[in-house]
Amino acid sequence: MEQANPRPQKQLSVYFITCVAALGGLLFGYDTGVISGAQLFLVQTFSLNSQQQELAVSCVLVGAIIGAVITGKINDAIGRKKTLLGLGILFTIGAILTAIAPNFVLFLLFRLIVGIGIGSASSVVPTYISEMSPFQIRGKLVTFYQLAVTIGIALSYGVDLYFAHLGMGWPPMFASAAIPGVLLTVGILMSLETPRWYASKGRWDDARGVLERIQGADPDFELNEIHSSLSIDQQKGRLADLFGPGLRWALLVGVGLAVLQQFVGVNTVIYYAPTIFQSVGVSSASSAILATSVVGIVNVLATIVALFLVDKAGRRILLIAGCIGMIIGLGLLGAVFAIGPTHASLVTLIALMIYIIAFAISMGPVFWLMSAEIFPTKVRAAGASTCSFSNWVANFLVSVTFLTLINGLGSAGTFWLYGIIGVLTLVFCITLVPETKGKTLEQIEGYWMNNRHWVPSTQHTPLSTGHGD
Ligand code: BGC
After folding, report:
1. Where does the sequence pass through the membrane (predicted)?
2. Is residue 459 one of the residues assigned to a domain?
3. 465 within some domain
4. In terms of C-beta density within 10 A (0-12 exposed, 13-18 middle, 19 or more buried), how is residue 49 classed?
5. What pLDDT digit, counting tens, does each position of 309-345 carry?
6. CATH number of the CATH domain containing 239
7. How far apart are CA 259 and CA 330, in angstroms?
8. Which residues line ligand 1 (CB under 6 A)?
9. What is the C-alpha radius of gyration for the chain, rounded to an integer number of angstroms?
10. pTM metric for this prediction
């Protein structure tokens, strides 16, 4: 067992730690967004038919599903920090290999590998940040992760456009992801393992050592909280525990939010915005791409607003307001298509703005935040990875059914269907999602274990013994 280092070590800002880990989110956003601009060039290089094009887009989602499944166990066994280090290396190598792929089959294989990284990052990054954060600002810090996802998407549009203008085609578009990959690898080497992972392994001295190195943390209070929570349940965390009484509600909330986050149709807007604009009369491709970039930038800006509100207004208010906004946006979008879309580009832009702003202040950040804060330490990695897995499966299902739905129900019917799911999401949030603002991770655990009632922090057994074991 590693001993705590007796030498006083430099303190680290929790913002530095958060920004480094959030690079995993940036890579998630970049690597999912990059394909939209690269596709045109891939079609030329590999002479792709439409099925192969769909494969080029969806294989990253399949990789992400695999990545989300395998991460829970790895994350628990080797720790959050080493998992992130592995991811940094995987993203870097994946970016370079994709850029030099000599044929389409290898291109798909390398995209699958990058997809595994994305799925894995979407489970480990929120968990890592949430376990590092002082509870008062946990919402804000985990929202940095979603902010990084949106920046990654916007950045990928810009980079695609840049290399397209230079006439350099798709290879540099994919290779550029190596830069954040290297930054993540180097940054995480300078960062720390989480106190809660150490504690779950019985390494209390290391847990205290980390808390003493995080600027502004309260080591005694936090260790007390972690200790009482871990002593409630001495068992080793197992996946089956997620289905036990109490925690099955947490699982329902986590998986419900995961699926609904995708079923409100966000990625049809993210991936298909240029097509939507063209079908309402924005004639030139470049104006459609420009309008899409506006959607990307508004997504980033609205997420910044969420960052400041999530610990003040709370998660529930954001979810409820956001669902109402998404329902209005989708209703309007459906109406544009029902009435006859030609020359309704301004109304379409307004409807898409309302929708994306509403998503970016609610389901975007709050789902990922909750996936990382509602499960107890022993099963947090398993819980987060189950949520992330459900989210990627739902993402895949929406992506492969969108065009079929448009053909079957028409555009208006499709957006109204997403709007109806928005109504269900609203009901789900009002009735089942607890307000976790200002609660420690251990209080949240107490909520599930006490029949969904809050237990004040002081009622936890105080830490009376030493930490070493
Ligand atoms: C979702 C992604 C989506 C992105 C858009 C994320 O929270 O999980 O599927 O593309 O938000 O900003």
Report:
1. 12-35, 55-72, 84-102, 108-129, 141-164, 170-192, 249-273, 285-310, 317-340, 346-369, 389-409, 415-433
2. no
3. no
4. exposed
5. 999 999 999 999 999 999 999 999 999 888 876 667 7
6. 1.20.1250.20
7. 18
8. 146, 149-150, 153, 261, 266-267, 270, 299, 364, 368, 391, 395
9. 22
10. 0.89
